[in-house]
Amino acid sequence: MGLVSLARKNSQRYVNKIAFIDGGKYISFNKFYADILKAITILKKYGIAPGDRFTILAENCVEIITFLFAAAGIGSIMVPLNFRLARQELLYIIRNCSPLLFFYHEPTKHMAISLKEEVVMLRQIEEWRDEPGVTYRDHFFKQFVSTGPCLLIYSSGSTGYPKGCQLSEQNLVANAVNLAFEAGINDRDIYLSFAPLFHVAGLNLILATFLAGATTVILPRFNPEAVAESIVREKATFTFFITPTLRRFVNAPAIKREHLKSLRLVFGPGGKEPPEVLRAAFNLLSPKFLGIYGQTEAAGVVSLSTEQIELEKPGSCGQLLPLYAGRIVDEEGWDLPDGANGELILKGPGVFQGYWNDVAQTEKTLVNGWLHTGDIFRRDEMGNLYLVDRKKYLIKTGGENVYPKEVEKVLLEHPLIADAAVVGVPDEQWGEAVKAFLVVREGAQKPAFSEIEQWVKERIAG
Q1: Among 11, 29, 66, 19, which Cα is nearest to 216's?
Q2: HEC states along 387-405?
Q3: What's the chain's average pLDDT?
Q4: What letter does residue 213 receive in the DSSP assignment?
Q5: Segment holding 451, helix H or strand E
Q6: How far apart are CA 227 and CA 225, in angstroms?
Q7: Cβ distance 65 to 193 under 8 Å?
Q8: CA torsion, ordered 427, 430, 431, 433, to nearest 10 deg
């Protein structure tokens, strides 16, 4: 099923039920479907054809979802832009994907106008609803599932420039089915969304919620007090925290457990939080917790863990969702036994279409239909996955593989250390040596090197 077909089905099944709450706007499933048809008409009026790109620079708003569905409806490609990026970073993305149309809304107007020389057409997104002379019909476009991309998300540029991940309707719907089924999302739920919609993590839970016939409340950005107020006001039943937002929310002094009693489910980072942060979160939030591991190249969420797994097996990301096959392999692509560290590779309908304008990187990442995640995992005998580190961070010292995250984890357990970063540095004898940069806890005395060395020796191999 394509996105527009799904919207049409939901408009017939749920009609006047509220699909989205965005500020003062309450948009029913029926109204949302009509908005998609109007957005399709607008895109066609502006000359957007199958395969063409258009960008949106906006804080979280329902229009991002509307135009994603519209892009799928005509086979064009929406490119949501990170409004936090600097002008030069946005210029790179715009020049890489060559959009014919640039939407922005009022909070991002200054940046958008500074980029207008790089796009064919600039339009304020708030004005599309009042576009004059627009007529549309329910059956003027083909009900089809495009085999090409409808969404282009630029991943972080940690290895250089950001790469545009091409995601199709099949990718997005498969991930929504996976999430809705595994998490038990149903049409009585109300999802509070504040994760940024220029990330796939922000989009995929909205699509899973929509698939289930549930309601999504959209906040423009994260603020602990605004989140708590919205949970109370809208009686939200689930929400999603990434690592920094979970810690800020748990530590916000004004938020009490009684404010959050409508919640039945909380999504959070899988295998990333230390047990003390998780316990504080569980004590405050109290409902069922599902930890997420995911990738843009896999259309979002790949595995889920429970609060029990998170506490009993620290560092676990849980198990793969049903529509993914996964293997842990060595550098030659051979499968490794349980307990061994290797790269996680994935296959399934959520695996992306490749990188935009980057055949070489696509061929490295998609090999015989398998997505090479670049993440090093190990798997236990129960099938639980543990993220060890990123493959590119590997330190090779004296022929041995050392993953910085494993060393950092041991260092962070020391009572005097607040933060740690481990890197490889050139070494004449070993090729690379392991070097740690440490931040001492506020008010603590700086520990002696010998004390840290002994602490690490007792907990990890040399």
Answers
A1: 19
A2: EEEEHHHCEEECCEEECHH
A3: 90
A4: T
A5: helix 449-457
A6: 5
A7: no
A8: -60
| Contact residues for 41 (Cβ-Cβ < 8 A; gap 6+) | 134, 135, 136
- Specify the amino acid at residue 116: K
Residues 81, 85: Cα–Cα separation, whole Å: 8
Q: Report which of residues 254 and 176 the model is more confident about.
A: 176
Q: Are 239 and 226 in contact (CB under 8 A)?
A: no
Give phi and psi for 429, each to the nearest 5: -80, -45
Among all chains, which residue has been given the structure tokens 């910085």? 404
Tell me which DSSP letter residue 88 carries.
H
Segment 290-345, tens digit of pLDDT: 999 999 999 999 999 988 888 888 889 999 999 999 999 999 999 999 999 999 99
Residue recorded with tokens 């600097």 = 86
Report the distance separating Cα 130 and Cα 35, nearest Å.
Answer: 11
Tokens of 407: 């060393």
SS3 157: coil
Q: Which two tokens stand for residue 461?
A: 């191999």
The residue with tokens 């569980």 is 282
N-term to C-term CA, the chain: 53
Nearest to 90 by CA among 52, 61, 117: 117
Rounded Cα gap, residues 320 and 327, in angstroms = 10
Cα 16 from Cα 42, distance rounded (Å): 24
| Under 8 Å between Cβ of 359 and 332 | no
pLDDT at 141 (0 to 100): 52
